[in-house]
Amino acid sequence: LLAISKVSDQVGKFMRGVVRNVLLPLLLAAFVIIYLYIFRILFSWELPSNEVFMILSVVFALGLPIWTMAGHNKEKLLGKINAWLPVAFIPFILLQCICIGIRFHHYGYTPQRYYACALIVFEIIYVCLYLIKKGKYLQWIFPAACVVLFVTIACPFLNAEYIGVMAHRSVVEDALDKGLENLTAEEENKLEDSYFIILRECGAEGEKYLQTELGEDAETLYDWYFSYDSVTEAESLHGELLYFSGSQSMYELDVREYS
Questions:
Q1: Which pLDDT does position 236 carry in this prediction?
Q2: What is the DSSP track for 77-114?
Q3: Using CA atoms, how far apart are residues 1 and 240, in angstroms rounded to an integer?
Q4: Are 235 and 227 in contact (CB under 8 A)?
Q5: How far is CA 208 from CA 70, 150, 175, 178, in A?
Q6: Which of its termini does the chain have fewer beta carbons within 10 Å around, N or C?
Q7: pLDDT digits (tens, 9 = 90+) for 226-247
Q8: Quick check: 49 pLDDT over 80?
Q9: Among the listed residues 96, 112, 13, the one whose alpha carbon sits nearest the alpha carbon of residue 58
């Protein structure tokens, strides 16, 4: 990115102009708005909304190439501002940790939240490399990104899908030991959430667990889940309005009278 922005032809000049006059001011505006939001949280003691983590992640993803391409700029004011942007992102990382911590506390583990934690780890590594000897070791960010990506996706016993199964299997197995018909409403809700995560979000690891470790119980649990889901949906109807739906498979349709 730095090399692209340094080319001396007309394209390079245009890119430097876009970064300096458009992208960097927009990034600074985003930083100011987020800092105002942080001050609001501090003064009002209200928890951050669910969308904050995604917004901060997008700011980092877009900000990294912007302040990298603007890194060669020798203008005094712009150079100082740009040099401090990665440091100014540190409070955003803390806010991300708060957001994901709240989600873990209220809703438990999911592979998506594992990916979110991996992103936070990558951001911390980046900021640390940026600060150590003025970015002397920043080239190690690419191997670090590969390591974080490997651990998150493919590392045995540490990848997101495997951890997801390990985090929720005890709920499933305890429910099966107790008997699905003997569960309380709270236990049923907890089982539904855990089974959904294993079945829908844990990919190959979830499928392996259900097929190889649960055996015949997997089919019983599958039938229970979809019957429970249907009952829950029916119970959600309230008031005097009832909704009906139906379908019929038709292999032939006579349209001769409309021709």
A1: 43
A2: HHHHHHHHHHHHTHHHHHHHHHHHHHHHHHH---HHHH
A3: 61
A4: no
A5: 48, 20, 19, 23
A6: C
A7: 876 554 444 444 444 555 555 5
A8: no
A9: 96
